[in-house]
Amino acid sequence: MKKNTGIIDRLLLFTLIPTVFIALYLIFIWSPVERIMGASQKIFYFHVGSAWVAFLAFGVVGYYSVRVLIKPRLQHHINAGISAEIGVLFTTITLITGMIWGKSSWNTWWTWEPRLATTLILWFIYVAYLFVRKMDGSTEKIARLSAVFGIIGAINVPIVFMAIRWWNTKLHPVVFGEGKNQSGGGIEPDMLVALLFSIFTITVLYAFLMRKGIEIEKMRHIVKRAKSKAIEKLAG
Amino acid sequence: MISILKDAWTIASKDLSNEIKTKQTIGMMVIFSSLVVLIFSFAFDPTNNMVKAVIPGLVWLITVFSGILGLNRSFLSEHENDTLTGLRSAPIDPSSIYLGKVLANFILVTAVQLVSIPVLFLLFDYRFFGKVSWFILVVIIGTLGFIIVGTFLAALSANAKNSEMLLPVLLLPLLSPLLIAGVQATRIILENEMIADAASWIRLMAAYDLLFLAACFFLFEFIMEGS
């Protein structure tokens, strides 16, 4: 069992290192420079990749939350928590890169566009989720409460998106795709390759962080149990 | 199902009669919401004509701010005297506790609104042009959604030591779609625009209410379980 997980970890690490370098090469050297936005368009690859991983991570949180409620197991609880932590990290990256991108292409740090606002609210929901996990009490109770909140949060996300979309259509019509040169078929094939590769790289990074995080969290639980056992022994 | 509703009514009437006796929470909520109106009148100059634009938002802000005070009390007071254990061990469905609390909180917040919204209109000298019945409908649907989610999260956060701080942090992001819809619908009705535009927002609010009522109704027993 122990050996088996080690192999997977090493495999992930050894795929991760070369893919990161290839992705960096593809993004900064190989892919063409955008004609209008120039070099600042390069942030697009990181932005889309982390946005995808953020939504993936929160999907994973919802999935494990449901599983905790069906069958309470520590493993599911840990998985959900680590995924939420990584999700918050990547949502933060998405927001920051998005702001930089917005500043250089729309000349404003922030607009109340559906996707931006949804991402921001998503960030708040999952920070709140992490607060629920930090509550004091028995692990079983926290597992149950945080799972319930995880499910409620996941239900909320599509409603938030719809509400904000409607809210903004009052001001201007919904535009599919991000501007003229990014919508669907408008993307350069070389750029698409770089984009897909960077998404793949960040997904591998997510899997790697997830495994490492779970391992650390498990160790924490073992230490906690050993500590309480030692205290009991000393007291008794 | 009938028995769940009956038990819910019992719990709600217990909370309400408790409240009628002491009048502590409701008094605080009324005073607090009036204070929020007062503070807003300093923040946005009421003599300015522009302030008409923020009235729909203020209706919801005072509801949410004063409502959070009441929601905090609804489960904390049970924790203080450990009566929650009594409720939990009672031979009733856990969902009826939830429904009862929703009912009690809804009546409480509506009672506060009956005072605070007229005070808001009065102090800001707001001329009402829209249809009153539609306005009341929007307020009721929005408040119901707020209470449905708020009561559930109050029960959840009551387990924490710092629950007064935790509740708003959990509640406000989840309320965002309801608040967007509520503010838009209120604005359309108060400015007497097309009712058809408001109807789609009201439908969104109703869908939110139903969806979260169903979800909270089924998930509530997981919050009540164990200790």
Provide an overview of this structure:
Chain B: It is a multi-pass membrane protein. Chain B: It comes from Mesobacillus selenatarsenatis (strain DSM 18680 / JCM 14380 / FERM P-15431 / SF-1). Chain B: It is found in: Cell inner membrane. The complex is a heterodimer of chains A (236) and B (227). Chain A is an all-alpha fold and 236 residues long. Chain A has one domain. Chain A has helices at residues 2-30, 43-70, 74-105, 114-133, 139-169, 189-235. Chain A is globular. Residues 171-185 of chain A have low confidence and may be disordered. Chain B has 227 residues and is mostly helical. Chain B has one domain (2-224). Chain B is built from eight helices and no strands. Chain B has helices spanning 2-22, 24-43, 55-80, 83-89, 94-123, 132-157, 163-190, 195-224. Chain B is globular, with a radius of gyration of 18 Å. At the A-B interface, helix 4 and helix 5 of A face helix 6, helix 7 and helix 8 of B.
Short structural summary:
With 236 residues, chain A is mainly alpha-helical. Chain A has helices spanning 2-30, 43-70, 74-105, 114-133, 139-169, 189-235.
Secondary structure: elements and pairs:
The complex is a heterodimer of chains A (236) and B (227).
Chain A: H1 2-30, H2 43-70, H3 74-105, H4 114-133, H5 139-169, H6 189-235
Chain B: H1 2-22, H2 24-43, H3 55-80, H4 83-89, H5 94-123, H6 132-157, H7 163-190, H8 195-224
Helix pairs in contact in B: 1-5, 2-3, 2-5, 3-5, 3-6, 3-7, 5-6, 5-8, 6-7, 6-8, 7-8
Transmembrane segments (chain B): 26-44, 50-71, 102-126, 132-154, 166-189, 201-223
Function (chain B): Required for the export of heme to the periplasm for the biogenesis of c-type cytochromes.
Protein name (chain B): Heme exporter protein B
List keywords for this structure.
heterodimer; A: 236 residues; mainly alpha; 6 helices; globular; B: 227 residues; 8 helices; 83% helix
